[in-house]
Design brief:
This protein is an alpha/beta fold. It is about 40% helix and about 25% strand. One of its GO terms (molecular function) is carbamate kinase activity.
Length: about 325
């Protein structure tokens, strides 16, 4: 039976240690060999992806090369730029893999705007580190030149700018993305969580912020009435008591189970916790009683499709 599946790619599916375009394109060709398996199994595929390293690198490049005549682009525009570049690489790589398998689907990237609340608490408490590291003196200089910036010391590695990470409330292009799926083709959307925008009268205004990719993927999955949200990360399964003698692999679990584990502080904030929270939200909010969220690795995709392995969260 055909399922509508949104696959959210983690950063390891795009970027390893080599940040060159050639290396990232090569990584996505390997990723596409896994993604095409969903299409071959008869599923309707939607792809979301992260862009944290790419935005960070772009901000570094801008910091090194900007001038009064050639000023750096704001963060919302940097997110759009990386949505476009990663989308292009994905379209190209997955298109090649579809062609090799005699599949007729086409791939289209939608540069996606995620609507957020201008009163989201994160705007008063920015916490997401982005861009280059600075020593204390340089950080003070950057702050003086940009009084609106918030700078913090980041894990002993230097000072960085932090920006808000608001919760996505809606996806502006959700109907367009759904139309691409309904036409039998494959959209790439909400790259890097989408471009954060706020609604003011008839205008959408970009904000200096970044949105969690998994939360944006969940919101899109909900709006397009997906049957499955698959969050790909570095491990085949979620664990409780991780790295302890009583470590336990989670396989089939319920929303109630996962809420209990969150209360026990089993999942690391900024790492596995947002993935679990996104998975719970999708299953809870879906009108489909059989909806499920899956957290597993890219390498485990085939085994998931054939044998149902991974951490599977149901109502």
């Amino acid at each position: 039976m055909t399922a509508r599946v949104l696959v959210a790619l983690g950063g390891n599916a795009i970027l390893s240690k080599d940040a060159s375009a050639r290396a990232q394109q090569a990584a996505l060709r390997e990723t596409s060999k896994q993604l095409v398996k969903f299409v071959k199994s008869g599923d309707e595929l939607v792809i979301a992806h992260g862009n944290g390293p790419q935005v960070g690198n772009l901000l570094l490049q801008q910091a090194a090369g900007s001038s009064e005549e050639n000023p750096p682009m704001p963060i919302d525009t940097a997110v759009a730029m990386t949505e476009g570049s990663i989308g292009y690489w994905l379209q190209n790589a997955l298109g090649e893999e579809l062609s090799k398998n005699n599949l007729a689907q086409e791939v289209a990237t939608v540069v996606t705007q995620a609507i957020v609340d201008s009163k989201d608490p994160s705007f008063k408490n920015p916490s997401k580190p982005i861009g280059p590291f600075y020593n204390k003196e340089k950080a003070e200089e950057v702050k003086k030149e940009n009084p609106e910036f918030t700078m913090i010391e980041d894990s002993g590695r230097g000072y960085r700018r932090v920006v808000p990470s608001p919760k996505p409330l809606a996806i502006k292009e959700a109907n367009t993305i759904k139309a691409i799926i309904d036409s039998g083709n494959i959209p790439v959307a909400v790259g890097g969580g989408g471009i954060p925008v706020v609604q003011e009268a008839n205008r959408l205004i970009g904000k200096e912020a970044v949105i969690d990719k998994d939360l944006a993927s969940e919101k899109l999955a909900e709006l397009i009435k997906a049957d499955e949200l698959i969050i790909l990360t570095a491990v085949d399964n979620v664990y409780v008591n991780f790295n302890k003698p009583n470590q336990k692999k989670l396989e089939e679990v319920t929303v109630a189970d996962m809420k209990r584990f969150i209360a026990e502080k089993q999942f690391a904030p900024g790492s596995m916790l947002p993935k679990v929270q996104a998975a719970i939200s999708f299953v809870q909010n879906s009108k489909n009683p059989d909806a499920k969220a899956v957290i597993t690795s890219l390498e485990n995709v085939e085994d998931y499709l054939n044998n149902g392995t991974g951490t599977i969260i149901k109502k």
